[in-house]
Fold these 2 entries.
Entry 1:
Amino acid sequence: MRLRIRNLTSTGECTSETWLALATPKIQERILRYEQDEIRFTLLAIVKKPLTILQSQLSTNMKLAGLIERRLDSLGVNWKSTLSEASINPEVQTDVTDLDQAMVTDIESELDVARLVDRRAKLIQEQDTLRFKMREEQEKLETYTTYATRKQHDYSPFIRKMLGFLVDKHSLQQYLE
């Protein structure tokens, strides 16, 4: 993907790898235009949404847990008999294409069943934490959406009606004083 950033270079072309090097001098130049004690700057960070990051982390975690479970199954031990009902993972992911290959190799070469079971238990516990954080983030988004909707709402008809009501009741004068 190519981006065109105006006035950054003579060519104006940049890639996802070079854009920061191209933009940094221009941003610094703009900041230096103002006096040293100027504090009115706006910085905008372009980042992934926290919910998207948490969903990605959960997906990776579930894939690792699934990989560990497959490894335990391949070792031919009855490891599931030691699990409590709460620690059984119903959402096993089998696609490991986007996982770090060093982690995949580490799990696939592990022979210690106890270590694999312990690692799996930690991953399941992390999944609970990630799900909790995702719920919190969804609640924040709902709160922000409600706030933004209220902020954009036009309350002037309500205010006119309320002032008219106060005038009709002859109560407006006492509030003005």
Entry 2:
Amino acid sequence: MYWQHVAGRKQKCLAHVRRTARDWKALALGGKHPQARQFFDDVIAWVQRGCRYHRQRKRGELLRAQDRAEQEWLRTELKRLEQVEVDHPKAATLQERLQTYHDDWLVFLDHPEVPPTNNLAEHALRPLVVLRKLTFGSRSRAGAERLANLLTVVETAKRHGHDVLAFLYKLLSRSPGRMLRFLYDTR
């Protein structure tokens, strides 16, 4: 559900839809409800194909005709998934979610710079979540905010290609304004 600042619309995470379809299929269905089983399988296949398309387009592996055909299939399949008959409440719930956010599932087709998942954001949060589990939390709201601020600075420095320890040393020994200019290379 990120990248609204780039595309003007938010991209809902396809990985979450896939995970929901996989989990609900295993949890709720067993050998019953063939329409719902097929629906969940089709949702999973649609997400996988969309993510594969995004990777192939990013690497420049698609001819123009292939690109158009994949985009058309992804759009058509979404419409079909939104309308297909289902025979289980979980499938109906997921189908309703697809309908409700119809315009947010395929933003990446019109904006190649937008990924179809928010995996980058989740991977960036993972170290914080692991640290929180290892240390049994921050123990106070102020401690949590300090840790969040520190890790924001660390991640920003990393993403701008700076040596984190050297950057933190400079941050503590120089003026904040000077460090912001250094961090964002605006001199």
